[in-house]
Design brief:
CATH superfamily of the domain at 1-110: Beta Polymerase, domain 2
Structural class: alpha+beta
Strand content: 5-15%
Number of strands: 11
CATH topology of the domain at 1-110: Beta Polymerase, domain 2
Mean pLDDT: 94
Strand order of the largest sheet: 3-4-5-2-1-8-9
Number of helices: 20
Shape: elongated
Oligomer: single chain
Length: about 400
């Protein structure tokens, strides 16, 4: 039995990055031998075990063969005669197909270390094209390591394009896709993930609503970058630069989908794009079964982001309606995420990345004013039921009018 550290732990150590998760592969062992040493089985599809003390994953060396469509369409063979090289060749990228033993001696049959040094994301073998999920994984690695200068090898991008055109991407489950998308959006440069998907044709398959934004012009006075697709990438970039949570990043990606539906004769204006985009945002939300908080914020930002930009001009009654729509009394965090999504939208414009956004503090102040209206005095006056709700609304409106006058 020989045990090797494999994959990301080896890659990140060689890059000088912190190693978080460690995966191990075991060569020359049987399931019975692993169980006899106290390892606990967890793999339903292939033999994976948890170490009796550390809880880390140890997988028996295995080969795989394509047997059907999609991510799960594989048959696996694990036995003591499978070599380390045979196990490594089934992996996605050369930089993930390295192993090291306890003495840190490197096994690198597919030149992963060279590709690390040359900053290239390259597939290990033609079998790469058998797994459609790898299109998303490579785009995610591109987003993660873009800051280090990594790019996708042209021949790998070509394979990704073939996969995108084959219909295999459509066999991916919503859960698998969302897992990759959500992880990619939380990388340092999530806009690179979207760009790589677009470069290989996968964006048009997975999110045609986002792909349709590229080439759609906006008024140059408000959008010096002009192109709506480039604006979306910039907004996403700003959301990562400002360390925003997944909910905000997802909303930033989808906020302008309505502009893809504007008839060409109306360009570069996009009247009521906030309203027309809602059905598209809903469709993307449902396609990937995004978590409820991501779905809700994306729809609210899509509908109200122009309200956010015009906050200082809004009538007190409109401001109150906005606050009510977000239920700022019971869901203050959701309104805060809306505010920062609007700010990322304002900053995601060429040359305006450092602009101030006074609307943010104004909206926070308005929410505090509305929340500060006390219910008890109204109860003491005898208001109850629907009448109490209306009285509370009147008091909040009065408070917002005073806030607006003094702002």
């Amino acid at each position: 039995m020989q045990i090797y550290k494999v994959g990301g732990a080896v890659r990140d150590r060689l890059l000088g990055l912190p190693v978080t998760d460690v995966d191990w592969v075991v060569v020359g062992a049987t399931t019975e031998e692993m169980l006899a040493q106290g390892y606990r089985p967890v793999g339903a599809d292939f033999p994976v075990f948890l170490h009796p003390r550390t809880g880390e994953e140890y997988a028996l060396a295995r080969t795989e063969r394509k047997s059907g469509r999609g991510y799960g369409g594989f048959t696996f063979h694990a036995s003591p005669d499978v070599t380390l090289e045979e196990d490594l060749i089934r992996r996605d990228l050369t930089i993930n197909a390295m192993a090291e033993d306890e003495q840190h001696d490197l096994t690198d049959p597919y030149h992963g270390q060279r590709d690390l040094e040359e900053r290239i994301l390259r597939h290990v073998s033609p079998a790469f094209a058998e797994d459609p999920l790898r299109v998303l994984r490579v785009a995610r690695f591109a987003a993660r390591y873009a800051g280090l200068g990594f790019t996708v090898a042209p021949e790998t991008l070509k394979l990704m394009r073939q996969l995108s055109e084959s219909g295999e991407l459509e066999a991916l489950t919503a859960e698998r896709s969302w897992k990759e998308i959500s992880r990619a959006l939380m990388e340092d440069q999530p806009q690179v993930f979207i760009q790589v998907l677009r470069d290989c044709g996968a964006l048009n398959v997975l999110m045609p609503e986002v792909d349709a934004l590229f080439g759609v012009p906006q008024p140059e006075a408000h959008h010096p970058e002009i192109d709506t697709g480039l604006h979306t990438l910039s907004v996403l970039e700003q959301s990562a630069r400002h360390k925003q949570p997944l909910t905000v990043r997802w909303a930033c990606l989808l906020h302008d989908l309505g502009k893809g539906l504007t008839p060409e004769e109306e360009w570069p204006r996009h009247i009521a794009h906030e309203h027309t985009g809602l059905k598209l945002i809903k469709a993307v939300n449902e396609r990937f079964k995004a978590p409820k908080d991501c779905q809700e914020l994306a729809l609210l930002v899509g509908k109200y982001h122009t309200h956010g930009h015009r906050a200082l001009e809004l009538k007190a009654s409109t401001l109150l309606e906005l606050l009510q729509s977000f239920d700022v009394y019971r869901r203050p965090q959701r309104f805060e995420e809306f505010i920062v999504a609007c700010e990322m939208d304002a900053r995601g414009r060429k040359g305006l990345e450092q602009r101030s956004y006074p609307q943010a503090d104004y909206l926070r102040g308005a929410a505090n004013v509305a929340r500060g209206v006390a219910v008890q005095p109204l109860l003491e006056k005898g208001f109850k039921g629907p009448e109490l709700g209306e009285a509370l609304k009147r008091e909040r409106l009065k408070a917002l009018k005073a806030y607006k006058e003094n702002a």
